[in-house]
Amino acid sequence: MVYAQLTPEYDAALAALIRKNLKAHQLDVPGTVYYDEGLDHLSGYYARDGRKYFIALYDGDLVGGIGLAEIDVFPECCELQKLYLDDRVKGRGYGYELIGKVEEEARRLGYKRIYLETHTNLKVAVHTYERARYKQIGRPESVVHSTMDLFYLKELE
Fold this sequence. Notes:
This protein has about 160 residues and is an alpha+beta fold.
């Protein structure tokens, strides 16, 4: 597996991967990233200071990714965003590797904590986050994707 920063040439493949995953879990509904206006051009969104998106490439094909961006929910906090993997590579620990990369980048950027939103339908993701020591918290007031029903926070060391 090779990890790299998202570039425009991978935007379409990433959007397709995200939509495929959400549809498979009955989350191709309003109030999820499935309908985000910028989903087809994520490289532009993550090209700003304080943000980053890593893609996972296997034999040159995009098979996953994870991002982070600033968020005002908590002080010195970023949000872990859009962790998705292709079915071909699930169950091999790549999700944990991607989480490790985003946490390392968050520390480098000066963030002290990471927040994330997910959904109970994403059982494997929930298990992954909890095993990576994210602690479930109550629903913050400023939730962007209204369909999400689980919220987590991790203090970075």
